[in-house]
Amino acid sequence: MKIFITGGTGFVGTSLSRSLIQNGYFVTTLTRPSSRQKRLPKEVSVVEGNSMEPGEWQHYLGDSDVVINLAGASIFQRWNSKNKQLIRTSRVLTTRNIVNAISLAKDKKIDLINASAVGYYGFHGDEIIDEDIPPGNDFLATVSLDWEAEALKAKASGARVVLCRLGVVLDREGGAMGKLLPLFRLGLGARLGTGKQWFSWIHRGDVLGIILYLLKDRDIEGPINCTSPNPVQNKEMTRLLSRALKRPAFMPPISGNILRLVLGEFAETLLKGQRVVPKVLNERGFPFIYPDFEDALHDMISA
Questions:
Q1: What pTM does this model have?
Q2: Would you give the distance in Å from CA 25 to the centre of its chain?
Q3: Mean pLDDT throughout 241-261?
């Protein structure tokens, strides 16, 4: 099976490429000339181009069986008007160009596994959120809604479309935990705001497992929550991190006002959180490797 990946040199994409190669898939990754191609396995075919613009890369995509779209500017930055625009356009335009390429491949059916985010749901306090909850109306929710709407247009070309609503992806090599672990090792860890907000997370290893599962079970389509079955509250996450690293979190809580000053509107995502569960995957009996935060944490600090 031929797989075409956008966002393939990112935190998830590089490890996904390795996993797909190891499982016998043929992988082509779209990269920009300036991207870190050396991180990719030598077996991966590389096509240069800008996913936000139409180009020759779309013809290579048309030769694939499945497109996995992971492209999008990081949300982990200060949300000023410029960054918010990039967060939106990098997702919407890339997905639009992918769907257009799929529509041009009239002689074959191409599946689309499209990243999305649990931010789709907005903020619901302690309410348990599954795939049946409607979208929210904050910035990240509207971005996710527009992002998914572009992906669903591929159904008009006969594509199976899966919307992977990702929680915060964790692994020792990078992502959010790559920033948190050094702080906690220095004893600088602290809860955010009240610490009561829920943190919906998933270990990178389980993200890879879910995608491999979706490649084999082609009956699954539509939205699926790619999160651990067991979200944790920020205060519990802080406690577990401190205990595992044997570093007391003696720093005072980081106030909401400070976070808003540093991160702008993005601070609300960290202060309010979401309690998301993977109802679809649970009902299908998907075997999570790291269902609990302590399991994932042990893996991240053991090496």
A1: 0.93
A2: 21
A3: 81
